[in-house]
Design a protein that fits this description.
alpha+beta, Alpha-Beta Plaits, three-stranded mixed β-sheet, two-stranded antiparallel ribbon, 47% helix, elongated
Amino acid sequence: MNETNRTVIILVAAVWIVLMAVVVFVAWAADKEAVDRLKDFVRYLDDHRDNASRLIVTLGALVLVVLSLLVIIVELAPEEENRELRVQQAGATTIVPAEALRMRLEEALAALPQVTAAKARVFTRDKGIGASLDLTIVPDANVASVTQEATRVVVDALQTDLGLPVAGVPMVRILFGPPRPQPVASSVMQPPQVAAEGLAEAPTAPTEETAASGPESSGQAPAQEETPGEHPQA
């Protein structure tokens, strides 16, 4: 049952409850002048103005009020999800688990870039599988683009991936949610890099005393120079 029929039934039941309340009020509180103006029903009330007649009218109105409340409760109660979907195709009956199919559609819809949350409902209709979608999108999303993309995802998942017949275009309801959270930069600071040239010690230059002492300071004797032509005698 679509939303229009459900709304009409609820409004009719609510109006009926109000009318029954008016009847009860008139039965107990109407004076003689008001009774004369209500024609046939008022004539009946005028002929039955004793407590017993009023009690009968009250009980009848209460019964009708209870029935109207039951109609409203039934119409407003959420519809029970089908556990299995039975589809007639190629001369055979295909049984599809509804929960697994619903989860697969929701996973595919949640992967869309502008969709933050997705809820799907699947059902059988006209020898095929129908779907109704509730999509929560970011505030700056293009509604027409998201609707078309969601419809394409559902039809592709049912027809192309699973090979199931589709009963018409899915019904899409759009809800606006908060924007996607932005990734937070890491608050851990990297340790500063110390320049290597500031840590290395410069080589020590030789002092004048070290240069003047020469090899004597190291405890080695100076080498003797040989004069050409002078050789020791054997």
